[in-house]
Amino acid sequence: MFRRSSYSTESGNNCVEVWRTTESVAVRDSKVPEGGVVRVSPAAFDHLLKALGRA
User: Fold this and answer.
1) What is this structure's pTM?
2) Distance of CA 35 to CAs 1, 16, 22, 40, 50, Å?
3) Could you tell me the strand order of the sheet in which 16-20 lies?
4) Beta-carbon contacts of residue 4 (< 8 Å; ≥ 6 apart)
5) Each residue's pLDDT expressed in tens, for the chain with a length of 55 residues
6) What is the DSSP string of 1-55?
7) Are 27 and 20 a contacting pair, CB within 8 Å?
């Protein structure tokens, strides 16, 4: 199940949704949920969060 970013505004603007499993992390634009999904490994996603200072 996709989960909305905690950095999302009340109106839902400018946010992403994340679905994390043991095999992959899927990320999509909450404004276009039927659009494309980016999938990366959990390790790659954790590295991204660390690089952004979010982990």
Assistant:
1) 0.78
2) 16, 12, 23, 17, 26
3) 3-4, 16-20, 25-29, 38-40
4) 12, 15, 16, 17, 30
5) 998 877 666 665 668 899 999 999 999 988 888 889 999 999 999 999 999 887 6
6) --EE-TT--TT--S-EEEEE-SS-EEEEETT-TTS--EEE-HHHHHHHHHHHT--
7) no
